[in-house]
Amino acid sequence: MRYIIKCDDYVLHDSKNQILKVGNPKLNLELNKNGTLTFTIHNNHPYFDKINKLRSIISVYQDNKILFKGRVLDDTTNIYKSKNITVEGIRAYLLDSIYRPFTYQGDIPEFLENIIDSHNSQVEDFQKFKLGEITVTDPNNYINRSSIEYLTSLEVIESRLIDTHGGYLIVRYEEDGNYLDYLSDFPYTSTQVIEFAVNLANLSQKVDGTGIKTGIIPLGAKLQDSEGNDTDERLTIKSVNDDKDFLIDEETAKIYGKIFEVVTWDDVTLPQNLLTKAKQYLADNIMFLITIDVSAIDLGTLSKDVSSFRIGEYVRIKINPHGINKVYLLKKLSIDIENPAKTQIQLGSSFKSLTDVSVGQSGIANDLITRVGTIETHYVPNQEMSGIVNEKIETSSFISQLPENIMLQVSQNYIKQSDFTQYQSQVSSQFTQTANDFTMQFTEIISQMDGLDSETKQQFNEIIKYIRFVDGNIILGQAGNPLLLKISNDRISFISNNLEIAYMSEGKLYIKDGEFLNSLQLGNFTFEPRNNGNLSFYKNRG
């Protein structure tokens, strides 16, 4: 894997070039964060003086893909006249413009477009963004937003959109400019799987009860006087809730006590809509928030035959001791560009539970997260597999050192989902070479799930077949089947339970025991059983 760091058009670092290097480059990417890049550049670097604070655009490439663009935020010169550089992602350009006090009523795409247009009108061309894909929606296709403060463009987006509707603000780098996408979710699923004793580094769980509320006082938009001016009073639910302005969950209150919260929806103008939102909010906040964080090592940094993790991808995790076999969103990616084997990822998933159960008991294996995504693969033939086992030892204590063999595994998933059926097929090929033999193993996993009337049924089948080359012989078989076929220079052998039961050599078949269910023909003569149990022997005519 090749990493390149550029300052505008100048190459500062190239992992395949021994001259163009910077010291200790580390890239940190996180969803809904600007991202940072840090490195040290020595004063004898040919492009030491090409870095201009805040103006130069620093880009990080992984092979041919842009992972990051940013601007130099600060630099510190040490005693050796080297500079320690900190770069922040260009998403921070949204901090450079001010959105004046406003009142807005309309849908989300138009509001975000207004913010971007306002930003672009205040900044230089290199700081501008184009409106990208927007998949976050409001149930009513209507929002009411206002502010009397002078906020940065990023503050408006975060406080008036992300905080209320969720989603992810992502910078997408294209040839014709930088796009801002506002996504409710991500469509991609990584083909690399995190497994216990393979690339799992750490697993942690946090059970948080600080957000539990058993009662709520919901408030809506400000009421208006006869002249249409806003008053200090707000809409309540009294008119549609038996003259009570609050809701309470009696069963939960018996357990945890009565814990009230005031929640305001500025864009709700009808009492019934306010009651609906209040009920949903209360249902979401009478439960514990359980957060699962997983750290893992990216095996894609060790081999091009394994696809690397990408920020915003979903990654499958298989951890049998904790009963986990689900997909989680990759929220944080930390790349050590100088030593990619130390690259770490952070995945997280939060869900609500009425009880503070543990990871092993929480039912994570029972559809905690249900997701089918687009599979994106990056397989490229690799000629440098001999060092992979050793590199794994350096990066994960879960991988035992196997000096007697070299193993390469390539897999590909296919997932398809319709209204009532989810179908998943995984085909995996594994090649293992030792000093004495070479094994090709083919694994096919098929998973079929049908869901009708809220009932889910899963069918699962796994078939492992292999071809092995040993001392000039070819052995074909299937895992769990005692029957093997062995092809040698002078014979083809049929082996059952490690014993040769028959073989072919020099045009003849040799077999210890035989059973013919219908008839036996030898040249022009045939042995054939009769219906009465006797045996006929006759010469064939013609």
Walk me through this protein's architecture.
Helices cover 10% and strands 48% of the residues. It contains 5 helices and 39 strands. The strands form 9 sheets. Strands 1, 2, 3, 4, 5, 6, 7, 16, 17, 23, 24, 25 and 26 form a 13-stranded mixed beta sheet that branches. The chain has a 9-stranded antiparallel beta sheet with strand order 28-29-30-31-32-33-34-35-36, with no helix packed on it. Strand 37 and strand 38 form a beta hairpin. It is flat and about 115 Å long.
Total strands: 39
Query: What is the number of helices?
Result: 5
**What share of residues are in beta strands?**
over 45%
Poorly predicted ranges (pLDDT <50, ≥5 residues)? Answer: 355-404, 414-423, 448-462
Q: What is the terminal separation in angstroms?
A: 71 Å
Helix content range: 10-25%
Mean pLDDT: 78
Strand-pairing-aware structural class? mainly beta
Please state the oligomeric state of the protein chains shown: single chain
Largest sheet: 13 strands, mixed
Give Rg in angstroms.
33 Å
- Backbone shape: flat
